[in-house]
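Hi team,

As requested, here is the filled-out complex form for the nicotinamide-adenine-dinucleotide run. I kept the field names the same as last time so the parser does not choke. Let me know if anything looks off before we queue the next batch.

— J.
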Amino acid sequence: MILLDGKATSNQLKEEIAASVKKLKLQGKKTPHLAAILVGTDGASMTYVNSKVKACERVGFNSTLIELPSETTEEQLLNEIDLLNKDVDIDGFIVQLPLPKHIDEQKVLMAVNPDKDVDGFHPVNVGKMTLDLPCFLPATPYGILELLERYNVETSGKNVVIIGRSHIVGRPMSILMSQKRKAGNATVTVAHSRTKNLKELCLQADIIVAALGIPEFLTGDMVKEGVTIIDVGITRVDDATKKRGYRLAGDVHFESVSKKAAFITPVPGGVGPMTIAMLLQNTLLACQRN
Ligand code: NAD
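And here is what came back:
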């Protein structure tokens, strides 16, 4: 079994990005600048945003964190987005999800200038991705492609089962892996909460991407020998033995599945760090395009 080490791979990517930034600076060009808007005080969201800001510092980007209270109205948030859209120093920005219930997420994502949409969530970028045109790829699927590519995992002609059809992971993953591209050319099946024969499908899969958000859902008896496993899930599970009171669990029962897998991502240290690295990659791209 080979561990698809997202931590090591993302560190390597960050070094590559840092080298590009150094070069830009030496040439007297603009330093990439990423901004993030965080609404409210959700613990997981704060952790994610802080990791993104830290990652910016590490590669030499400028970063701006805009923290807004949970009572922020939709109109106030749209105004902040408008300011970032117009700010020529900001190359790209993200609005950390989920947003408080009184704010229409779709409306907010639509307000982001597609040229600064480094999360790749705007319909213009989603449409371009679907047509295989240059665009910002959503960071999590992009990170998974990069990981598969860097570990030379063969995907061409393989049966891929993606569990989950969300707009940010499952759906784009299914589109990208079925396209004519590196880490693509696969025969893709998208499974979701209404899928009836999931175990049967998984047992035929050469590659499984688990993105459903149910801890340790995929177990050893559901996979075949030699399978490649990408575990996207991150759920905080209560754990009194940990100082912080919880542990992070993936969607895969690592112990039983890893015994049969040829390649597998750990949680933590798999897809998560790759997502952050690809956000930086998209920001660098946005800056170079500017
Ligand atoms: P989501 O909640 O939006 O979607 C879950 C999907 O799983 C749905 O499409 C649903 O149909 C499907 N599903 C639910 N129960 C199922 C079942 N029993 N069988 C088959 N399918 C089922 O989730 P999301 O936003 O895509 O996130 C999924 C997980 O990935 C979460 O744990 C999230 O925290 C994690 N995540 C991690 C990263 C990362 O960087 N590592 C990024 C995004 C999301």
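Two things worth flagging: The first strand starts at residue 2 and ends at 3. Residues 199 and 222 are 5 Å apart (CA to CA).

Thanks,
J.
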